[in-house]
Amino acid sequence: MAAGCCGTKKQKLNNSTSVTCNGTSLIPNGVRNGMVAHPEMCFFCFDVLYCHLHSLDPPKTPNFCNDPYPLFVTWKIGKDRRLRGCIGTFNAMNLHCGLREYAVTSAFKDSRFSPITRDEFSKLHVSVSILRHFEDGSDYLDWEVGVHGIRIEFHNEKGSKRTATYLPEVAPEQGEQFINQ
């Protein structure tokens, strides 16, 4: 348990891997050796969303591994890649089921956004983040921007539990805005 201001608990999401694609071009992020996330996972998320938007049967079982990991699916839209939805789980889920579930959940149930529509589909980009090697931080500065993600848990002045999660790619993307949050 890390001691920091406000009694926050932090965990580094060390060595998580992620891949991003827009359905055609691929931009691999993260560790090359031992990389768990693969471009096929992004294509699968697009297939799942397309089938859901068009009321079709779900796509066939993918060929990538089905090992259990905590995971997040992030949808962004447009050339400027504005966030459109991001939801995941810290509970390990088999990748086939987890990506199928969170591709839809992040597209339709992120409370910060209205559900993704058919008209937006061609403008979407998706990232799959596979989380590994959690460790407690010793203080609020015990993480490296662009390498570690951070999970913060604390109780507010009314005693309600609050959490925030920032995947490894969030800090470099948001810069100073991230630090202010």
TrEMBL record:
- Domain AMMECR1 per the UniProt entry, residue ranges: 30-181
Recorded hits in PROSITE patterns, A to Z, give: AMMECR1
What this protein is called in its record is AMME syndrome candidate gene 1 protein-like protein
Which PANTHER family does UniProt cross-reference here? AMME SYNDROME CANDIDATE GENE 1 PROTEIN, AMMECR1 HOMOLOG
Regions that span the bilayer: none
Q: Which residues form a coiled coil?
A: none
**InterPro entries tied to this protein:** AMMECR1, AMMECR1_dom_sf, AMMECR1_domain, AMMECR1_N
